[in-house]
Amino acid sequence: MRPIRPTRAARQGRSARRASAPLMSAAGLAAALALTVTACGPTDDGAAGAPPAAATGSAAAAGGSGDDKIQIPDDLKDRLKEHGIDLDKWKNGEWKNWNKDDWLREAEDFVNPIIAGLWNPDRMKEAEKPPKQPVANDISGDAGVTDPVPARLPAKAAKAPYHSAAPESGRLLFDGPEGSMSCSATVVRDPAHPGRSNLVWTAGHCVHAGAKGGWYRNVAFVPSYNDGARAVSKETTREQVAPYGVWWAKRAYTSAQWISQGGPTGGNGAPYDFAVLSVTSEKGAGKSLEETVGSALPVDFDAPAVPKITSMEATGYPAAPPFDGERMYQCEDKPGRLAIKPAQPTMYRIGCSMTGGSSGGGWVARGQDGKPALVSNTSIGPVTAGWLAGPRLGPEAKAIYEKAGSR
To answer: Mind listing the UniProt keywords for this protein, alphabetically (predicted)?
Structure first.
């Protein structure tokens, strides 16, 4: 199976269906379970193998221009130099160099200098491209902890303004070798900074290409993207599509399993397909992201077992046909279980018609305290867009979350 990949600028047709991550191949099912990622990422398949358990992360550099210039700490300037990155050249287009030798891959290699104004309405709209390589929806023969395939549920359009319906949700934009792409993401609480969180939760495949690639570039979060659900055109202003600003990833953390196993198709790495970003406003100092949007979801790393969960709601910005990435949608269903490999955690699965671009979007359920909490994120789904699956958040997810909040 494959993670739901980020959507790309050129629309490839309904067959390409990822939520916001690369497609993965399902090597662990009794029969091949072919899925497509719905959000973003290269098209190389990930390599299988026993994943390390350690969480991985990276520090990013923030830099701007003109009045919006953000000071870069000396240690981050040094890191840029170590990677051979000249900030001025980077901002003038050097980031478009995707030579394998220059594509930063390791956990600590993430760099994301702010290029003020780069994500304008036109580039945001171009990021609606779906993935190129859909896979068959073959799930015959699965058994054990995999429940029957859920019934397909049509995604429902979220009520505008989105900030009233789901203030924590937004769209994640980034660039990869194949162009601009998009996923979905969620503002989550930061226990280290109560009420002032700058943390965003998404899928691993929305920030890192996995086993045969590295970190994506120009990663930015737009909370309540297109809040009024308007038709986006050349006349649409940046303030209309980004009413709460553009927030650039300062640091990014994903699982060691995703970096070592993840790929554009199949199930490799899918149970560990999650990521946490520490973001900063493109405009520099000011209120935190949580203060700006007025809300942040808690994360539950010990959610009840599937039989005890009566409902989960997934939110995202699907961009592959028949969707266009400009509007927020939601699916609510009682989850079932999906097993990729016997030695890996079982994933959640719900019926949903959302397509590529919805990857990384948060799944909300009642946590252990009975209150709404983020318990998963969209990772993979079939080419027929009938269901979505997301990782169950455990020790590996908690480790990267705590690391992100401590910085």
So the answer is: Hydrolase, Signal
- The residues, ordered by sequence, that sit 6+ positions from 327 with a Cβ below 8 Å of its Cβ are 157, 158, 226, 229, 317
Q: Which residues contact 33 (CB under 8 A, 6 or more apart)?
A: 1, 26, 138, 139, 142, 267, 338, 340
Q: Residue 145 belongs to what H/E stretch? A: none
2 is a domain residue = no
For residue 94, what is the enclosing H or E element? none
Q: Tokens 């998009």 correspond to what residue? A: 182
H or E element at residue 122? helix 121-126
Structural domain for 89, as ranges: 7-406
Q: How far is residue 119's CA from residue 127's CA, in Å, rounded to a whole number? A: 10
Where b means 16+ CB within 10 Å and e means fewer, 80-90 reads beeeebebeeb
The sign one gets for the Cα dihedral 233, 186, 128, 324 is: negative
CB 59 within 8 A of CB 34: no
Q: What is the pTM of this model?
A: 0.85
pLDDT for the residue numbered 20: 39
**Residue 264 and residue 134: Cα distance in Å, rounded?**
10
Q: What is the DSSP annotation of 268-335?
A: TTGGG--EEEEEEETT-SSS-HHHHHT--B-B-SSPPPGGG---EEEEE---STT--SSS-EEEEE--
Q: Which among 11, 36, 24, 27 has a CA at the least distance from the CA of 382?
A: 36
Is residue 109 in some structural domain? Answer: yes
pLDDT on residue 95: 94
Nearest CA among 358, 362, 364 for reference residue 387 = 358
Does residue 32 lie in a domain region? Answer: yes
Per-10-residue mean pLDDT for the chain, 407 residues long? 48 35 27 36 32 51 47 71 86 92 89 93 82 35 70 97 97 94 97 97 95 94 97 91 97 96 81 96 91 97 84 95 95 93 88 95 89 94 89 95 90
Q: What is the domain count for the chain?
A: 1
Does a structural domain hold residue 390? yes
Inter-residue contact 204 to 56 (CB < 8 Å): no
The encoded tokens of residue 181 equal 């792409």
C-alpha dist (Å) from residue 170 to 167, 197, 221, 255, 381:
8, 15, 7, 22, 20
pLDDT at 25: 25
Q: What is the pLDDT of residue 14?
A: 32
Nearest-angstrom CA–CA distance, 16 and 18: 7
